[in-house]
Amino acid sequence: SDKGFSPKFNEKDGEVERRSLNGLYVVENGRPRNPVGRTGLTGRGLLGRWGPNHAADPVVTRWKRDGSGNKIAHPVTGKNILQFIAIKRRDCGEWAIPGGMVDPGEKISATLKREFEEEALNSLQKSPEEKAELEKQLHKLFSQEHFVVYRGYVDDPRNTDNAWMETEAVNYHDETGEAMDNLPLEAGDDAGIVKWIDISEKLKLYASHSNFIKLVTEKRGAHWSEDPGPEC
């Protein structure tokens, strides 16, 4: 309603990224239209921006190991069990990947690392010295080879007809378990609890997060389901 508000949709608007990861979207009467369809809610709703709202979801994983350091396989499938760092969201009480919104002008890679530090390591409450130590430990994990699990529109409870969530989910895998062993997990600003959780299809996670986790298990050849599914 502000007369001075004239966003440049479908392009980089100053520092704000208004392009969609899924390509061009329709703008009708000055309002962007949700590319997936109607939601039953008009306007911006609870989201910060009209059109695409960009988030980043770091999926940090390791193999589940016994006291001797050996990988633990699932008794039914024989596949190794993968664990990921999950937070329990304060706003809805659901378990989720410790992600968050991309700041204007911020690179996705920086958002992924920053959100992980803030949500899972409570870096905002740390002293400069403690923060520097965390940075050093995390550098190894976040600078190694990683893979993009998903990029694009996500089914989120906050989506409206004119504003929607998009994310880039990236898997950072600690193959040996050494990079993450000494990191002190501590819930940050939006998280009530943070911990390593065993991955399986029984997990009930926030929004589209279960889909991202499943894609990671497929990529890593880890256990997901006891049900073998239909035979080919």
From TrEMBL:
PROSITE patterns in alphabetical order: NUDIX
EC number assigned by the record: 3.6.1.13
A Gene Ontology molecular function term of the record: ADP-ribose diphosphatase activity
Catalysis performed (reactions): ADP-D-ribose + H2O = D-ribose 5-phosphate + AMP + 2 H(+)
Domain Nudix hydrolase: 63-219
Pfam family, one: NUDIX
Signal peptide stretch: none
Cited InterPro entries: NUDIX_hydrolase-like_dom_sf, NUDIX_hydrolase_dom, NUDT9
Gene Ontology cellular component annotations, sorted alphabetically: mitochondrion
Summary of the function given for this chain in its UniProt record: Hydrolyzes ADP-ribose (ADPR) to AMP and ribose 5'-phosphate.
Subunit structure: Monomer. Interacts with GLOD4.
Family to which the UniProt record says this protein belongs: Belongs to the Nudix hydrolase family. NudF subfamily.
Protein name from the UniProt record: ADP-ribose pyrophosphatase, mitochondrial
Gene: Nudt9
